[in-house]
Amino acid sequence: MSFESLGLQAELLRAVSEKGYDTPTPIQQQAIPGILEGRDLMGGAQTGTGKTAGFTLPLLQRLMQTGKPRMAGRPVRALVLTPTRELAAQVGESVRDYGKYLPLRSATIFGGVKINPQIRTLRKGVDILVATPGRLLDHIGQGTVDLSQLGILVLDEADRMLDMGFIRDIRRILAHLSVDRQTLLFSATFSGEIRKLARDLLREPMHIEVARQNSAATSISQTIHPVDRDRKRELLSRLIGANDWRQVLVFTRTKHGANRLADQLQKDGITASAIHGNKSQGARTRALGEFKTGKVRVLVATDIAARGLDIDQLPHVINYELPNVAEDYVHRIGRTGRAGNHGEALSLVCVDELKLLRDIERLLRREIPKVVVEGFEPDPAQRPQPIQKPHARRRPARRRA
Ligand code: AMP
């Protein structure tokens, strides 16, 4: 199947071919024709499936077909809501890339940066707005954005937006939108809460569900290294050093843990930086840039910060600590083995985390192989200690995205 056969216009096909894509991914094949017809969509897809192009390409074409792009003042006609700044930036970049031959304007707005330049951009008129909920509400409150003419709404990573406590913000934004619109909702998981949101928002939606192109089962090898809690850092440095890994994404449960681990790795002579919600936008972008270019070998991230990061073909993902929520394990290891490349996901698991491990294995419906590294045998006498739950996770987190 080709992009031509999906009914996309020449300007979009040109942009797609310049990106080097020749075949639409499964979600693109299934979603694009229906979105072009104006249908609502409930899409079960995570990052890495090509979902961004799957909704951006037909969205751009719909805007060309249905509106008056040169209207004075240009009210916003399409809105993409994302949970994190990084995802907003990535989606915004895709909108610009795919729409480069179309006379449409787009803007990306998120918190953590000055609001005035955003106000100036919005005032000039924007067809497509990519935004995180908190900052968008600030603009709505200040009357600097006009959503009254919105024809298309996309909720990207809706499950994560709910996890981050954005539901009330989303509902407040919805109250400003026309009900006569096309709505596309993407989510990697389908809790009761997501299904309720979908029931409220979507009209006779198409349901499309795709696995990652390279599902965890086939191209990501997973290993557990049992180890004592106070020897994890040493083991991590050893693994990175002995294998000479050059690009490693490491997950911790907390922001504080991420900072501390990045500092310790630096002391071990391994370049590392931390990325999490408490860092300024500039610091996060810089850390990601340095990691992508290879200047920094290790990026230590919390779940929220890492979600949706588009880092291609990451060879190694390490769970320094298992996540409290089993689904996050799947999201984490999804950062490796992308685009058909083989990936490796290692988890350093101490006695405190055995229950979390059981939850993960139950979710995956299989056991993950355990390999004890020589010299790091866990002490069988060690007793589990309770894991401190980070409170931030379930708290409404408007200011962080
Ligand atoms: P996404 O799931 O939207 O984050 O996309 C994951 C990655 O796949 C991105 O780096 C895209 O640039 C890339 N991609 C999207 N569609 C295609 C395609 N049809 N062929 C090859 N790569 C693609």
Short description:
By secondary structure, the protein is α/β, with parallel strands linked by helices. It is built from 16 helices and 13 strands.
Distinctive features:
disordered C terminus, 401 residues, 13 strands, 15% strand, 6-stranded parallel β-sheet, alpha/beta, Rossmann fold, binds adenosine monophosphate
Q: Could you outline the blueprint of secondary structure elements for this entry?
A:
Elements: H1 10-19, H2 26-36, E1 41-44, H3 51-66, E2 78-81, H4 85-98, E3 106-109, H5 116-124, E4 128-131, H6 133-142, E5 152-155, H7 158-163, H8 167-174, E6 182-187, H9 192-201, E7 206-209, H10 216-219, E8 220-226, H11 232-243, E9 248-251, H12 255-267, E10 272-275, H13 281-293, E11 298-301, H14 303-306, E12 316-319, H15 326-333, E13 343-349, H16 354-364
Parallel strand pairs: 1-6, 1-7, 2-4, 2-5, 3-4, 5-6, 8-13, 9-11, 9-12, 10-11, 12-13
Helix pairs in contact: 2-3, 3-4, 6-8, 15-16
Adenosine monophosphate is lined by residues 21, 23-25, 28, 47-53, 310, 312.
Largest sheet: 7 strands, parallel
Question: Helix and strand string, N-terminal first?
Answer: HHEHEHEHEHEHHEHEHEHEHEHEHEHEH
List ligands, each type once.
adenosine monophosphate
CATH topology of the largest domain: Rossmann fold
Uncertain segments are: 213-218, 392-401
The coarse overall form would be: elongated
Q: State Rg.
A: 22 Å
Termini gap:
38 Å
CATH homologous superfamily of the largest domain - what is it? Answer: P-loop containing nucleotide triphosphate hydrolases
How are the strands of the biggest sheet laid out side by side?
3-4-2-5-6-1-7
Q: What is the tally of helical segments?
A: 16
Proportion in β-strands: 5-15%
Q: Architecture of the largest domain in CATH?
A: 3-Layer(aba) Sandwich
| Integer average pLDDT | 88
